[in-house]
Amino acid sequence: MKRWIVSGLGAAALLASGVALAHVDVGISIGVPPLIVGAPVYAAPAPVYMAPPAPVYVAPPPVVVAPRPVYVAPRPYYYPGPYYHGGPRYYRERWDNDHHGKGHHH
Fold it and tell me: What is the greatest pairwise CA distance in the chain?
């Protein structure tokens, strides 16, 4: 029995929805805007006066007197010249006028 009632209500809903959407609206408009009432006016109370805070006095930082920085260049260091004690063999073979090297003595 419940099944028949539920199915009957479902069929009625399907048929009624098609009829409910099939209507035509006709309207007449004159173009006068509707009367709009604004929100209630609220007047805020006057602000409470507050005195500004007292000024804060701060002592200036102490004056520091320091000498200016002195830039000193490092003292020069002189390296000794190269020292050759005899050296390799080619230091002893040198050009002498027309004679040069070993084996060419005249």
Answer: 150
pTM: 0.18
User: CB–CB of 99/105 below 8 Å?
Assistant: yes
Predicted confidence (pLDDT) per residue in 2-40, tens digit: 788 888 877 777 776 555 556 677 777 777 777 777 778
Can you tell me which residue has the tokens 């099944």? 3
CA distance 19 to 13: 10
Kindly list the domain boundaries of the chain, sorted by start residue: 70-96
In terms of DSSP bridges, do strands 99-100 and 95-96 run parallel, antiparallel, or are they unpaired?
antiparallel
Rg (CA), the chain: 59
What is the residue type of 70? V
| Cα distance between residue 31 and residue 73, in whole Å | 97
Give the separation between CA 32 and CA 26, rounded to whole angstroms.
18
Write the single-letter amino acid at 25.
Answer: D
